[in-house]
Amino acid sequence: MKSTFSSVIVSIVICALAGCQGPANHGESKAPSLSRFEYSAPKMGTIFGLTLYASDKGAADRAAAACWARVDQLEQTLSDWRPSSEISLLSQQTLNGPMAAPVPVSEDLYYMLERSLEAARLSDGDFDITVGPLVRLWRRSQQLVQLPKPSRIEAAKRSVGYRFIKLDPAHRSVQLLAPRMVLDVGGIAKGYTSMQVLKLLRERFGITRALCGAAGDIHAGDPPPGKSGWVVRLESLEDKSKPGVYVRLHNYGISTSGDTERFVIIDGVRYSHIISPKTGLGLTDRIAVTVIAPDSTTTDWMSTAVSVMGPEKGLALVEQTPGAAARITKIEGGRIAVWESKRFGQFAFQPAP
Ligand code: AMP
Ligand code: MG
User: Fold this and answer.
1) Per-residue pLDDT tens digits of the chain, which is 353 residues long
2) What burial class does residue 330 get, using C-beta atoms within 10 Å of its C-beta: 0-12 exposed, 13-18 middle, 19+ buried?
3) What does pTM read for this prediction?
4) I want to staple 4 with a disulfide (CB 3.0 to 4.6 A). Which of 32, 45, 160, 280 is the partner?
């Protein structure tokens, strides 16, 4: 299926949106004046889900419509699948060579570029939105079930490198310094979008008890009435028939990255849709990474980045990020190895059988 943004791990959204509530009510009083409303819509090449608590259906429907309009606007800004999006038009300016001068961009695009460069620096280039030309080769490989020729990978790599993005905050402008660059924010934009939806609900409609998410990226606002948090079942490489791992959170983001859904097997090797900027190919490690943090832009890029960085370097990054926690599963020597960051236990719980 063609996907604007990656659609990796769906079950955490489904579970969260289906209202997998925790067993405890913690004695909080219910707010009977609020009812639960659930929406979903195909957006950004995947299914976005929205759950909110509002006083009546009319208010909820109006709020949801405004949310979808905001998601559409962000898709038209950030989708690398759409040739007419703002980010695609920016990349196209390098078709015949590096850009001669900076161009001003929208606030949303500038913020995405700024956060992406920060992510690239913090991950030592393992998260890099300039991997677009390599992502295009990966998509071709997936269609043809054939690896790209090494010469094509080398040619693509000449357009890859986050240092080729020059930002000027004073003018909110950007200049791309290599030829044939393709910016791909598929590893960070859904987290940002989910958080933007919650911001809109809060600021325009006064709705704070809400959760928005797509594929593996969710932002949770205030908890449902009478609950202490939203409950999300983590997707991992572990046996699906086992009870699973649950977290409870509010005013936090949660993202999961991995190759459970998007991969290609070529000559018996499984290549994930997450690219190693070093090899130019999809990751061949079987890994699933969940990151939890107050900001879902962070959880989105960090779960992708940690997939590339691996458990040791990745966990070090998580530990040094304020409020962040992570759980990683990886297949090593035919067995599943599990890593949990120090703060992970603050979120995890086992529902009563
Ligand atoms: P996610 O599902 O959030 O882990 O993001 C995966 C998507 O991010 C891919 O489908 C690509 O569009 C993009 N991507 C792949 N590899 C990288 C990378 N090394 N750095 C940044 N973005 C990447
Ligand atoms: Mg991501």
Assistant:
1) 334 333 333 344 434 443 444 333 343 444 459 999 999 999 999 999 999 999 999 999 999 999 999 999 999 999 999 999 999 999 999 999 999 999 999 999 999 999 999 999 999 999 999 999 999 999 999 999 999 999 999 999 999 999 999 999 999 999 999 999 999 999 999 999 999 999 999 999 999 999 999 989 999 999 999 999 999 999 889 888 888 899 999 999 999 998 777 899 999 999 999 999 999 999 999 999 999 999 999 999 999 999 999 999 999 999 999 999 999 999 998 999 999 999 999 999 988 77
2) buried
3) 0.92
4) 45
The Å distance, Cα 273 to ligand 1 centre, comes to: 7
Query: Ligand 1 in contact with 304 (CB < 6 A)?
Result: yes
What is the 336 CA–ligand 2 centroid distance (Å)? 22
Any ligand 1 atom below 6 A from CB of 300: yes
129 pocket-lining for ligand 1 (C-beta < 6 Å): yes
C-alpha of residue 127 to centroid of ligand 1, in Å: 8
Residues with CB in 5 Å of ion ligand 2: 187, 300, 304
CATH architecture for segment(s) 86-176: Orthogonal Bundle (1.10)
Domain boundaries, the chain: 86-176
**Would the CB of 48 count as within 6 Å of ligand 1?**
no
